[in-house]
Write a structure and sequence with these properties.
The chain is an alpha/beta fold. The chain contains 15 helices and 30 strands.
Length: about 600
């Protein structure tokens, strides 16, 4: 019998507890090298019905099967790549492609648990049971087939990186009490997660030591990801092919590798990888790409694991399902499109091994990711944004959004809605209550919003229909077009905003705010701040819309305080004014604008 580590046992306990009361698909998040195979084996051992464990590559199928049989139990393998098609025993380990091509072998209705390893590879189409795409994914077809025989099938996913590139988290809610992915997510809850930092601190994984290149590196900063979030190979080649930095980079890798056991190098393209191999010692170097045959790949990996090869160069094929614990140097010579991919690459070197104390991670591509940083469901905005913590003023949940700091002070964030889960009374919940989803919902506080003209409800800034009264929201382009048609209206494409202290006709201090456009036109607002009532008006009419970090408890008590901290404020994209007598009065402002009209800070 194999003894589980404490976090592995807790993962098993939480999964069993979840499925005792629910059939909602669940996720367990464990870092690379944390022993997901042992968790799978223990769950399969405890299951009362039949169990199917799916993986996308034969190496994972074989690895998970071996861990299960280490219990002294027997299980079948259903994988064409391993030359076996067995499906009679209680527990079956299979590759998704082999299983989907032979559904008749899994039609008896006795399967009660489906486990999917590397479940971040499950595409979104499995969440839509009504609208089936023309060609459903293999995972979707397997799930539908098993559910047709057993509607109460339990589905568990395991992964180190629970997000899909360009789409965010793969599950809806987290047991820490927060919403992560879209409500339509197939996986409903993350029921357990073991942070990488804790694993390293407790000595279960080798410490990653990152060194960013200083002498030579590639500049991928101008590349734009294509649809799906990945970089195009031809654009990558434009950066790396014939780049004078490559030989210098390889020399640097060789220098750092002198006292290292196993070196993995991640190249940008096949042509790039072939050039890299040309600068490495030929007798101890191998190259693996997507076109390397299965037998040849197996031979090269075996030679690498035994130490006959020291350098293994690859192109996007060894980021998952590869286990070589002696690897203690990772060289990244390619851009990584997400923190998830970066974690997968770095994870190849974090397993423990004899005479290994840490893993050196050399980054020659300027990747911005922090190995320990959380993934954020929204894409990273342009510029120097970083994850920042923003407490919800309504439920108290500590959200993580993209944003900017000035020291410890959050001066800007891009969050729209609180991600916290609350009960019927609006109190934040976590633990088993959050994981179960029973009587909980997402907090309705919105940091940024647009107000419905009909009922006053606050809606997401991209909403087309009010969630309160269901009325169609007035489109921003319609507002601008209608205002431009009026003779007594002025529309500013805002290029800046200035704040200053002035006095009115009676000599009383006022805060004057001037909105400027590119042509020199202006619209102005004035606010008094002497009394609590005047300060409340200023907050309601101006401050809450213009704060770069909305939701923070900043209630300036004087004009001087506003002027001193005006770096907290942002300008609108458009300001619409109407003539009232001899003066112009601000009537509407558009923020976070996305439409057909050009904004002042956009090109063209």
């Amino acid at each position: 019998m194999v003894a589980l580590r404490p976090y592995q046992q807790e993962a098993v306990t939480r999964v069993v507890r979840h499925f005792r009361d629910s059939s909602e698909p669940a996720v367990v998040v464990l870092p690379t090298g944390s022993g997901k195979s042992l968790v799978i084996a223990e769950l399969a051992r405890l299951a009362r019905g039949r169990v199917l464990v799916l993986a996308h590559v034969r190496e994972l199928v074989e690895q998970n099967h071996a861990k299960y049989e280490a219990y002294g139990l027997r299980a079948d393998i259903f994988s064409a790549g391993l030359g076996r098609r067995e499906s009679e025993r209680q527990v079956v380990f299979g590759s998704v492609q082999s299983v989907v091509n032979h559904p008749g072998a899994f039609a008896d209705g006795a399967f009660t648990l489906l486990v999917i390893d590397e479940c971040h590879r499950v595409p979104p189409d499995v969440a839509d049971s009504e609208r089936k795409p023309a060609k459903p994914s293999s995972y979707r077809r397997v799930i539908d087939h098993l559910r047709a025989a057993n509607p109460n099938l339990k589905v568990l996913g395991l992964t180190a990186t629970p997000y899909r590139l360009g789409q965010g988290f793969i599950y809806y809610r987290h047991y820490h009490g927060m919403v992560c992915g879209p409500e339509s997510s197939f996986f409903r809850a993350c029921v357990f997660e073991q942070p990488l930092r804790v694993m390293v601190r407790q000595g279960y994984l080798a410490e990653p030591k990152r060194i960013d290149a200083t002498l030579a590196m590639y500049d991928f900063s101008r590349l734009e990801p294509k649809r799906g979030g990945r970089f195009a190979e031809e654009e990558l080649n434009r950066v790396v092919q014939g780049n004078r930095a490559t030989p210098r980079i390889v020399d640097d890798v060789l220098m750092h590798a002198r006292a290292r056991q196993g070196v993995m190098i991640f190249a940008a393209t096949v042509a790039h990888a072939e050039e890299i191999v040309g600068y490495l010692p030929g007798d101890t170097t191998a190259l693996i790409t997507g076109t390397t045959s299965g037998d040849e790949r197996e031979r090269l990996i075996s030679a690498f694991k035994t130490g006959a090869l020291k350098y293994l160069v690859n192109v996007s094929v060894l980021t998952t399902g590869f286990d070589a614990p002696h690897v203690d140097l990772i060289a990244i010579l390619r851009p990584t499109e997400s923190v998830g991919l970066y974690q997968q690459i770095a994870g190849r070197g974090l397993r423990l091994a004899a005479n290994k104390h840490d893993c050196l991670i050399l980054d020659y591509a300027g990747n911005p990711w922090d190995l320990y940083a959380p993934e954020i469901s929204t894409p990273k905005p342009p510029g120097d944004s970083e994850p920042v913590q923003v407490e919800c003023p309504q439920c108290g949940f500590a959200n993580i959004f993209w944003g900017k700091r000035d020291g410890e002070l959050v001066i800007e964030h891009y969050g729209r809605r609180c991600q916290g889960l609350v009960d019927a009374h609006g109190a934040h919940v976590s633990g088993e209550v959050a994981a179960s989803g029973e009587s909980v919902h997402q907090c309705d506080f919105r940091f940024r919003y647009k107000v419905c003209d009909q009922c006053g409800a606050e809606n997401d800034i991209a909403a087309r229909r009010c969630h309160g009264c269901q009325a169609l929201m007035v489109d921003a382009d319609d507002k601008l077009r209608d205002a431009l048609r009026l003779r007594d209206a002025r529309v500013l494409r805002v290029s800046g905003m200035t704040l200053e202290e002035t006095v009115n006709g009676r000599g009383l201090r006022r805060l004057k705010i001037t909105h400027h456009d590119e042509e020199g036109a202006t619209l102005e607002e004035w606010f008094a701040m002497e009394t609590p009532a005047q300060r409340r008006v200023f907050h309601a009419a101006f401050l809450r819309y213009h704060m770069r970090a909305p939701g923070l408890d900043w209630r300036p008590s004087s004009i001087d305080e506003v002027l001193e901290q005006q770096y907290r404020l942002r300008a609108a994209d458009f300001v619409i004014g109407r003539r009232v007598g001899r003066y112009w009065q601000v009537r509407d402002k558009l923020f976070d604008y996305e439409g057909r009209y050009r904004t002042a800070d956009s090109a063209g």
